[in-house]
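Forum: Protein Structure Q&A
Topic: Joint prediction for protein chains with partners

I've read a bunch of threads here and the consensus seems to be that you should model interacting components together rather than docking separate models afterwards. I'd like to see that in practice. Below is the full input, 224 residues plus whatever partners are listed. Could one of the regulars post the assembled result?
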Amino acid sequence: GENVEQHPSTLSVQEGDSAVIKCTYSDSASNYFPWYKQELGKRPQLIIDIRSNVGEKKDQRIAVTLNKTAKHFSLHITETQPEDSAVYFCAAIWTGGGNKLTFGTGTQLKVEL
Amino acid sequence: DVKVTQSSRYLVKRTGEKVFLECVQDMDHENMFWYRQDPGLGLRLIYFSYDVKMKEKGDIPEGYSVSREKKERFSLILESASTNQTSMYLCASSLTLRRVFFGSGTQLSVL
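Posted by a regular:
Agreed with the consensus. Here's the joint model:
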């Protein structure tokens, strides 16, 4: 089955700095990689995703990159703001027939003023 | 907006009790999931279901069972609750797995 590792477990940055969270996956068949954000006391919500036929995807201040050869994918947040403080989860899945969505262990991001 | 509703926000049970956690979704999604969330361990998949009456074990199914008699409802059952099952339980549903919708969670304490 799929195994997703996520680093770091905690990340503290100054407001305005960039933050990078990295994940690796084990199943080379995985072809879809979503990122979820969970604010304190709230449910996780999808913020961005990337498919295996794309190397990079951007949405305003967030971007995700994928290296299929190395089985790495990363979340990049630029110009961080206090409202970016949350737990971020990466995930990996094979959409070709599997129904199991495996998440990483999460990264607690704290943006300090 | 998709609604995934979990019946209880907080639940306190005693060791050995049988516990039912209920989840209902209103979007006719085939896929439903139960995760538990613990600090430092992230979201761990307990069971999932891709159709009515179908169930598959996730990564940590021991001590749990599930029931899906109707498409919109997915129940998690703790046959005999133990203290190590104290956790936040999150239900989720999805049509294609490209976007998963979570419930607001049930914080279960087993004393």
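Chain A touches chain B through 23 residues (CB under 8 Å).
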